[in-house]
Every structure is written in C-alpha cells, then in structure tokens.
Design a protein that fits this description.
Elements: E1 5-11, H1 18-26, E2 30-36, H2 42-53, E3 57-62, H3 67-82, E4 86-89, H4 101-106, E5 112-121, H5 125-142, E6 162-165, H6 166-173, H7 184-194, E7 199-207, H8 215-232
Parallel strand pairs: 1-2, 1-4, 2-3, 5-7
Antiparallel strand pairs: 4-6, 5-6
C-alpha cells in the first residue's frame, strides 16, 4: 500500500488516555482527533500535543456532542480536503493497539479492512454475543440475494478499528448519515458494500476498557439493522 495515511480518532472526555493514544498512532501516520465537545481536560491535552507535533496532528473541536458518526465524518472531510489516500479509524481509549497501524498500512489494496477481534481481553460475554449476532445480521443484510444467508461471511462487522480507501472516504464524507452512535460502523460498512467496495479482515487483539455502549446504543443498532433488512426485502425505499 502506498500513499498518505490519516488516523482519525473521535474523542469525548478521554483525558486519561488520549495522549497515549495520539503518541502511539502518530509514530505511524498523521493523526486527526475530533474532540466531540469534551468537558474534561481533553482539549487542553490536545492543545499541548498540537504544539509538539505541529501539522502532523489536526484537532477538530465540536461545541456540541455528535458522537461517533459526526466525529469520524468530520475527520474524513478533513482527509478529503487534504488529499489523504487512506484513513484508519481507531478508538480514543486503549482498546486498539497502535502497533497494528503498521499492519493496516501494509495490508494489500482494498476498499475496507476491518480489524477483526479474533483475540479479546476482558470482553464481557454479552458483548461477544452482541457482536456475533450483529455479524450474522449484517452479512445477510449486505448479501446480494434474499436467500443468500451468509453473504461475505465477515467475522466482525462492528469493529471500529478499520482502514478505508480514498474512494470510500469520499463517499462516506459526503453521505447524509442516519447513524447516531456505534451504529455508524454498520452504516459505513453498508455504504462500502452498496458501492461494491472490496472488504477484507485483519485479525487484531482487542482489549475491553471503558465503553459508552449501553442499552440505548444497542437499541439504535437494532433499529439500523431493521432498516437494512426492510430495504433488502424491498419493504422500504433505498436511502438516500
């Protein structure tokens, strides 16, 4: 893989971890952090890091919280504006090991590389079950036929550690997103599939830490999956 890479990190109240995450990522590529209206010391820490790293670190400040979709989409808009060839998205916590960035960058050309959580640490059983179910549903939703149950047979459809190609970044950056939380990762995957993008997986080790995943977020993900199913079955119009 050749070309410029931008690592996009959406962050909300991540004062405890954001410096370590940025320092780990910036070794491998330029970084853009979207500070999503943090109320803790996150803005102060980012300002300090910006002085240190200069143009290698871009900071986008939201005055109103937009959660993951707005944070990543604004980072992608910046990537399009600056002409980056690849975008890698990762968490602001310590769930994603920055050392995998090298593997993402060396992975063969394709439109989307998903960091598949084949090895996990401290992940509750209910989260594993949710991820497994989501993968089954998404594979079916994205398959070409109504009776194609397995689709691309992707193992992990909701991981946020990903690499996107420039054409897909351009598509997602300009897309009128429906998602409002973690369902962004489902929507982004659906956008890539809708545009016939190639999708591969890279095995990663995932460490469960503080998470904003809750019942409300789960309901949103279920709601988005229902939308995809209804569109697949031609019971609701395509979007947008």
């Amino acid at each position: 893989m050749s070309g410029k890479t931008l690592v996009i990190i959406p962050a909300y109240n991540e004062a405890e971890t954001i410096e370590e995450v940025v320092r780990g990522a910036i070794v491998f590529a330029d970084v853009s952090v979207t500070d999503d209206a943090s109320k803790d010391a996150t803005p102060t820490i980012l300002a300090k890091l910006q002085k240190e790293f200069g143009k290698k670190l871009n900071v986008i400040r939201h005055e109103k919280n937009t959660h993951i979709p707005g944070g990543i989409q604004d980072g992608m808009k910046y990537a399009v504006e600056k002409g980056y060839d690849w975008v890698i998205t990762m968490d602001a916590g310590l769930s994603h090991d920055a050392s995998y960035l090298k593997e993402f960058q060396s992975f063969p050309n394709c439109d989307l590389v998903i960091g598949s959580r084949t090895s996990t640490v401290n992940v509750p059983l209910y989260r594993k079950l949710i991820s497994w179910t989501a993968a089954k549903v998404m594979n079916y939703c994205l398959s070409k036929g109504v009776f194609n149950i397995f689709g691309a047979n992707l193992r992990d459809c909701t991981s946020g550690y990903r690499r996107y190609s420039k054409p897909m970044v351009q598509k997602i950056a300009a897309y009128p997103l429906e998602s409002v939380a973690f369902d962004f990762h489902m929507e982004a995957l659906s956008i890539v599939a809708k545009n016939d993008g190639s999708i591969k997986e890279l095995p990663i080790r995932y460490i469960f830490s503080n998470s904003s995943f809750n019942k409300k977020v789960l309901k949103l993900a279920i709601s988005f999956a229902k939308k995809l199913l209804l569109r697949k079955w031609k019971l609701s119009p395509e979007y947008p």
